[in-house]
Amino acid sequence: MKTVISVLTAHFFVLSAFIWLASPACADSGSDYKAGSDFAKQVQGNGLNSLKNFSGEQNLPGYTDNPDQTKYYGGVTASGDSSLKSDSALEFSQGDTGKTITESFTNRPPDQISQDAPFIQAAKDTESRADSIVGDTGQSCT
């Protein structure tokens, strides 16, 4: 019986110490909650108001309600590509970007492949032992 009482007494002291050490954290939780609640009340609805009062002209550089590219869109039931292909081909052939791309392909030096490259050596090794790979599995060629 003495061991039960001593175990219960030990549990009581451990629990009391835990409550005593945790009480300062609990005391601040009420004020922290109030501060968070007050902040939430201050900003409540700001996100929705930002969306309602959004102006593309004020927030996005170069924004217009009717950009030049709308001429390419004919609606969801439209067929064909309107003039998108011809305009893009014209811009590629006459614009600075298209000219730069074309020049980079035509003036680029060819890639030099070394005969000592590992993939070349592996291909030559495979070629040299092709008969052992295939063996006598196929029809004879004459």
What's the structural blueprint in terms of helices and strands?
Layout: H1 2-43, H2 46-52, H3 56-59, H4 84-94, H5 96-106, H6 118-128, H7 130-134
If you had to describe this structure to a student in words, what would you say it looks like?
With 142 residues, the chain is mostly helical. It is 64% helix and 0% strand. Helix 4 packs across helix 5 (96-106). The mean pLDDT is 82.
- Apparent shape: flat
**Low-confidence parts, pLDDT < 50 over ≥5 residues?**
none
The share of residues in helices is 55-70%
- The total count of helices amounts to 7
User: By helix and strand content, what is the structural category?
Assistant: mainly alpha
The whole-number mean of residue pLDDT values reads 82
The total strand number stands at: 0
Describe the largest sheet.
none
Report how far the terminal alpha carbons are from each other. Answer: 104 Å
Pattern of helices and strands: HHHHHHH
Radius of gyration: 39 Å
Strand proportion, as a percent range, falls in under 5%
Organism: Klebsiella pneumoniae
Signal peptide: 1-27
Region (Disordered): 50-142
Biased composition (Polar residues): 94-115
